[in-house]
Amino acid sequence: MIDTRDPERRSRTFSRCYITPELQVWLDTGSTTAGWLRGRVPLISYARISADGLGGDAIGVLRQHRNNAESAEARGCAVVLRYEDNNLTAAKETVLRPAFRRMCQDIAHGAERETGIPVRGCVSVERERVYRLRPDFLAFQDALALAGGAVFIEGGNVLDLTEDGGPVPGTSEGDRVRARAAKSRADRAEEGRVYAGPRRFGWLGASATPYRIGNMHRDAEEWPHLLAMIKARAAGGSWRGIAAEMNRRGVRTARGGRWSEQGVKGLVANPAWWGGRILDGALVMGAATGEPVIGEWDHADEARDGIGFQTWSGIMRGVRAARLHRGVERPGEASRQAVGTSRTYLFSGVLRCGRRNEFGEVCRSRLCGNKATGRNQKYGDYYRCGDPNCKGIGRRVAPVDEFLVGLLLDRLDEHFADGAAEPPAWRGTTKLAGLLRTREEVESAVATGEASWGDVQDLLLRLGRNIAGLDAERQEYEETWAKENLLRGWRRERWGRMGMRERREVIAQVFASVLVLPVPEGTSDKAPFDPSLLIPSWRRGTTGPLPSEP
Known about the structure:
Blueprint: E1 14-19, H1 21-28, H2 33-37, E2 41-49, H3 59-74, E3 77-86, H4 98-109, E4 121-124, H5 127-130, H6 134-146, E5 151-154, E6 157-159, H7 173-190, H8 223-234, H9 239-248, H10 261-269, E7 278-279, E8 282-283, H11 302-305, H12 309-316, E9 351-353, E10 367-370, E11 382-385, E12 394-396, H13 397-415, H14 429-448, H15 453-484, H16 493-497, H17 500-510, E13 511-516, E14 534-538
Parallel strand pairs: 2-3, 2-4, 4-5, 9-13
Antiparallel strand pairs: 1-3, 5-6, 7-8, 10-11, 11-12, 13-14
């Protein structure tokens, strides 16, 4: 079941679906879903909140689930599953809502994909939680229709979206919402108001009791460190050196982690520390004065702190990253477009540094591939640790790749040569075939004159949407199964036909990590490559035969 939460990095934005707690307790005793339902109609409780302003505790969606359960019970139904998209708007087509998409698929098929728990519709506190844009409305409406008239409860009312479901959202609704939001941002920026976002290092976060706006008041403990970073960079210090110094002092980031080069760069390049703000890629300037608008939040003062706008401008002339340039114009680069990068080195991110850092700990930072330049070109590209508090460890790419690929292929030959299998039948095969037959029959009736185009136009449009949606789900299912079963029936010749992305997927399924130990004291840097200094850790399931199909 869907769960996009990352246990190592808490975030307000996530999607998930799970069995409702009351039913889960019942199932844990060995009883069945049918026994728990006792004839009630099984529904999905869908909850969504656009902005989680309560610290990411998902209190808003939990309240919606509680209200949904009460609405379902009042109508002789029962909530069997909870689907939620937290901190995700429904007013932007570019924002994906995984839980909403999975809910539509499960309603259309009449059961949850993995558990098989039956579902006959959805309950939500209001329809705007489910859909705001026309494409989402149509997707939800089609799912209910494909299920044979499934139930949709809004609050305490049962809605028929084909009749009394209220006005159909127009394609311009999202544009209107985005325009209002953009106008609000521009107005607040021109007024110098505090703008929303996660807590920045150097400022206090939001608080409900006592009430406090986030990123408005400076943090007395962090502020001196922020000023120190800015002054160090203005004096010519490197991003790496500044990060290392902050870590040596035991100063933590706003999220409680250690500093990195990019973390320091992002903070110092942000004009908020001197009171400025970037909007749509440019500094916000006063219309009357032509000078930068100074915000109402606490910020550095030139007279008191010795740094300000001019300091920032000088720093930004040395910033190369386009996404961090913060509106400062650079001649000749205005038309440059960002180009997506792809991994170039097989084991970037898999290799981990085994040197002890300045804190006496094994570093374990990721080693990334680097292009050899200058006098080092003759040695070839190399993997290198980039942790600012580690002296670093490096290995040439060619011998590392050759050795580890050999280990990988031997492991695959030993454990994954057997077990080739075809994917289990996709759950929508019969439904998709039926829709294709229906469309063919309708089109044939139009062609022979048995039906007019005007009578069947809406039907054909809906059939086309349903077929396209199910076909996309089928392709997603096949791709997911292929990825999860990439190693089944392994043959060594497959490696030569694979591209970089596929090879890295294989590596990720076999290697958990590879610890790179430092060269022993007294050993020359030009000594032959020593494979014993690479310590692989294997993924679970790669140390024995592949389990057979259930």
